[in-house]
Amino acid sequence: MELNSVKEIEVLIVGAGPCGLTLACDLARRGVRALVVEQAPALFPGSRGKGIQPRTREVLDDLGVGDAVREHGGPAPVGMVWRDGRRQQEHDMFRRAAPTDAEPYGEPWLMPQWRTQEILLARLRELGGDVAFSTALTGLGQDADGVTAHLSGGPVRASFLVAADGGRSTVRRALGIAMTGETVDPAPMLVADVRVAEGALDRLNWHVTGGKQDFLTLCPLPGTADFQLVARFEEGEPDTSPEGVRALVAARTHLAAGDITEVRWSSGFRPRAALADRFRDGRVFLAGDAAHVHSPAGGQGLNTGVQDAYNLGWKLGQVLRHGAPVSLLDSYEQERRPVAADMLGLSTRIHRGEQERGAAVQQLGLGYREGPLSVGRAGVLHSGDRAPDGPTTGGRRLFDVFRGPHFTLLAVGTDTGLPAFDDGNSGSDGDQLRVHRTDACEAYGKGLFLVRPDGYIGWAGEDASGLARYLAPLGVPEVTRC
C-alpha cells in the first residue's frame, strides 16, 4: 500500500496482530476508511496466541471467517503426562461441553496465531482493505478534530487512532499512559514452534513433562506439521537459539536433539499481568495487549483483544457513518476495562494453579449489565448479556439473523404490533436496524430484545416503549414500525 496516496483517513490502526486486523475487518464492512500500519515487514510468524475461545469463534464467524477457522484449526488435544520417558496418564486441561442451541461452540479451538492473522488479513483484503508493512509510528499529536500521526512513510491525518501495537505499545508510551500490574511468575519461559521427526512423537495428545523445575510441553498445532513448545526455567535464562531449543528438548524429554528437525520460531518472556490506567486519550484508543497484558496460561490475551476490537468497531462506525455523538465512544473503556481486569485476574490464578480452566475461560458469560448502554430486561435475559444463538420459527439460526454490521430487534413470543416479514429480517442490507420475530426461543423467554452489532443485548422490554429513545443517541433512525 502506498502511504503517499493516503491524504486523510478516518481510523488509523497501529499494529497488524489479531486485534488490529479484527478491527480493520469490522470497520471495512461498515464502509469506514481505515489504514492498518505495521512496523514489521510481515505478519507475526509465531504460534503464541493459539487458543480461540468459544466467544471469539462467534465473533470470527460474524466477521465472515468462521469456515476458515473451522478448516484450519481443531480442538485442543487431551494432555498426556510423561515421567522418565514413559506415558503416565491423560489429563484434560479444559472444560469441554457439547454444543447447544444457545452456545454452538463448546470447547477451545486451537489455531496458531500466525494462521489467525493470515485468515483475518485475507478477509480484510476481500473487504477492500490492506496493511502497510514496514511502516513505523514515530510520533503523534492530536487536537479536537483528529490525530496527526507521523509515520516512516510520511504523515497521516485520521479522525481516530487505535493502538493495537502490543504490550510494548509505542502509542501508549507516547501518550504517557501507565500500566499497573505485577509479575505473575518470576521464572522466565520459552515458547517455540518446532518440527518433530516423523514417528518420534504422536500428534494425538498435548504432551506434558516435568515439574516446577523442568516443566515442558509440546502441543501439536492443528492444520500444520508443527508443535508449540513451552518451557519454564526455575534457574537461568532460556536459550532461544535452535541449538538451545534442541538441547532443552533432549534434556527434559525422551526425545533426542536430532528429533527436532526444525525450529521455526522461538521467543523468551516473563509472565506478567498489567492493565493500562485508561483505554482512551482524546481521539486515541488502546486495544488488545496495548491495553492489557496477560499470562498465556488462561488463553485470554488474544481473545480479549479481539473482543476489544469488536466492541470498539461498531461504535466508531456509528460515530463516523451514522452521526452518533462522539460521547458514545466513552462506553468503550467503561465496558471493556472491567472485562479486561477480570480476565487478567483469571489468567493469573490459572497460571499460579489457584483455579482450573473452567467455563470462565470460554468468555461466553461475559457481558455489560452494569455498562452505560444496557437498559431493561425481558424474558430470562438482562440487557448487557450475550445474545444467545438458537433456532427460529422460520428455520433459521439466530446467529445467521444477527450476522452483519446492523442492529437486530428480536421479538420472541410476543405480538407487539411488529409487521410480519417473510422468514427473517426486515429491510435491506443497508438498514441499520432489522426486525426478526419468532414464536419461541428458550434461551430468551418472551419479550423484545435489541441485539447490538457486537452480539450483546443493549435494550430489552415487554413492548417497544422506550426503544426509539434508546436508539436515537446511537445514531439509529427512529423506529416507526413498532
Describe this structure in words.
The strands form six sheets. Strands 1, 2, 8, 9, 10, 11, 19 and 20 form an eight-stranded mixed beta sheet that branches. The protein has a seven-stranded mixed beta sheet with strand order 6-5-14-15-16-13-17. The protein starts with 7 loop residues before the first strand and ends in an 11-residue tail after the last helix. The longest helix has 22 residues, at 301-322. Mean pLDDT is 93; it is low at 419-429. The protein is 23% helix and 27% strand. The protein is of the alpha+beta class and 482 residues long. It folds into three domains: 3-72 and 112-183 and 273-362, FAD/NAD(P)-binding domain (3-Layer(bba) Sandwich); 74-110 and 186-270, D-Amino Acid Oxidase, Chain A, domain 2 (2-Layer Sandwich), CATH 3.30.9; 377-474, Glutaredoxin, CATH 3.40.30.120.
Oligomer: single chain
User: Mind telling me which CATH architecture of the largest domain this is?
Assistant: 3-Layer(bba) Sandwich
Question: What are the low-pLDDT stretches, counting only 5+ consecutive residues below 50?
Answer: 419-429
Mean pLDDT: 93
CATH superfamily grouping of the largest domain = FAD/NAD(P)-binding domain
Quantity of strands, as a count: 27
Proportion of beta-strand residues: 25-35%
Question: What is the terminal-to-terminal distance?
Answer: 46 Å
- CATH top level label of the largest domain: Alpha Beta
Count of separate DSSP helical elements: 10
Radius of gyration: 23 Å
- Choose one word for the global shape: globular
Helix content: 10-25%
CATH topology of the largest domain: FAD/NAD(P)-binding domain
Q: Please give the largest β-sheet.
A: 8 strands, mixed
Kindly name the structural category: alpha+beta
Count structural domains. 3
